[in-house]
Amino acid sequence: MIEQIEPSVDIETTEIPHDDFEVAIQICGTLIDAANGEVVVIFGGGARDIFLPLTVAALSRTHHIHASYQFSDIDGEVRERTLPDLTANAPAQTEPTLETIVTLDTPVSLTEITEAMDVSKSTITRHVKLLERQGLVTSETHGKTKVVELTTTGRILISRTRS
Asked: Residue 86: inside a domain, yes or no?
């Protein structure tokens, strides 16, 4: 399967204990942290006893992961997946802006956010840049209009903080 993704990859094998969940998470995390070069995680194949610890370790270290792939048991295809950052938080000063983006139901323009919050466009622009750095929103320019949309990470943060 790995040859489908990268034919010239170097593979290193490490034994992961299948009967100690916490140790397995630690070992998987240490491997991700210590890796030189680009880290690619493949979620598929192998023992399910290792799948969950690897998933936990990868989701807690998304900033170290260059790419992740999932092998489908249903159609046999390998698909690239973008991992959400489950540890992301909105900087305190941007929380009202993020809440407004959610309320206005993305995608939403900077102008709409500015009007809804009654603050300067430069403040909203700064907040959106900070939220983008945290992976909570993305923005695109459509003509002269900048449009902001929640990411999966942003939606998870909102559901986490509202529960």
From this structure: no
